[in-house]
Amino acid sequence: MRTPIKTLLKPLSLALFVATTLPTQNACNQTSPSSNPPTQTAHTQTSPPFDTIFAIGPSPYFNPPTQNAHTQTSPPSDTIPAIGPSSHFCKAIGGKDYDWGESLIQTSDGGYAIAGYTNSFGAGDYDVYFVKLDAKGNLQWTKTIGQEGSEGGESLIQTADGGYAIAGYTNSFGAGETDVYVVKLDAHGNLQWTKTIGGPEIDLGHSLIQTADSGYAIVGKTNSFGAGDYDVYVVKLDAKGNLQWTKTIGGPDYESGTSLIQTSDGGYAIAGKTISFGAGETDVYVVKLDKNGNACCSVSQTSQVGSGGTLSSPAPSIGSGGKLTSPTSRTSSGGTLTNQCP
After folding, report:
1. Which of 272, 278, 295 is nearest to 222 (CA)?
2. Cα–Cα dist 69/88, whole Å
3. CA angle in degrees (0–180, nearest 5) for 252-245-340
4. Domains along the chain?
5. Please, which residues have CB within 8 angstroms of residue 184's CB and are 6 or more apart in sequence?
């Protein structure tokens, strides 16, 4: 078993905070027309005052006027209907040791899925931890994926087939100290396949997308390949997880990719950080690639690819709690643009 990369692991509890506050109205706060309205004759029309607020459903505090034939009562144009109870929850999911979430999505059934790390459950030091909640935050199932070393999930997506894909890292499998780790699950969290991509040193995956051809693209960092200490590492897989190509982008110092999208022209765009280029100690690094991963500042490398992984289904404890705060932040503007391309 390789030595875990402790610097990657943060001793935090996995917590999901969802707070949605909808305006809730009490019938006692409503302004209603008089309970004894004037008698109306045929063809007359009575409208309530413009500040009337109508409640949805019956209310003992609201008695609309009795209408004769051909009469019509219409609410004013600024009427605001009452809305049902607000929906919010706080949940903590984990065991007796360290568990936390790194990536959260809302799923097609209205629930939530989280990928992260656990060393309360699983086969090794840390394992990929996958948690599925329903729309009310109730626990549906959890999965751990890994082996005797350390694994972690950094990025989670729901795939076109209703399943899930996770990208992160592993040091239980692969070619080097750590490798990019990609896990594909079905809609119920059952393991379909795993892949490791990397070389003899440290390679990590930070962001995962499903591409237009139903494959996958991952961005992260590598010091197995490239021009410097770490370089941006881009990996392209087909729909079955087979390696199609990899790219490294960077200079003599440190670069890393943390966010990836596919662009409207079929190419890719990456955001991360750089020490090799720019105006300061570190700068925002933005790279545009074509559909084959080519960029004006890229170096192509052939990496090694492997597969591995074990799946278990622990029975974790679940609790509720958490504190939500709204701090006040400051904003300013500035920045220097350095163009690497001719």
Report:
1. 272
2. 46
3. 35
4. 10-20+95-319 (2.115.10), 26-82 (no CATH)
5. 159, 163, 164, 165, 191, 192, 193, 194, 241
Strands, sheet with 87-94, edge to edge from the N-terminal-most edge strand = 15-20, 87-94, 317-319
pTM beyond 0.85: no
Supply 334's token pair: 């500035």
CA–CA gap between residue 322 and residue 326 (Å, rounded): 13
Nearest Cα to Cα of residue 340 among 288, 302, 266, 305: 288
Give buried/exposed letters for 183-203 (b at 16+ CB in 10 A, else e): bbbeeebeebebbbbbbeebb
d(CA 50, CA 220): 58
Confidence of residue 41 (pLDDT cuts 50, 70, 90): very low
The string of pLDDT tens digits covering residues 176-209 is 899 999 999 999 999 999 999 999 999 999 999 9
What tokens does 82 get?
């009452």
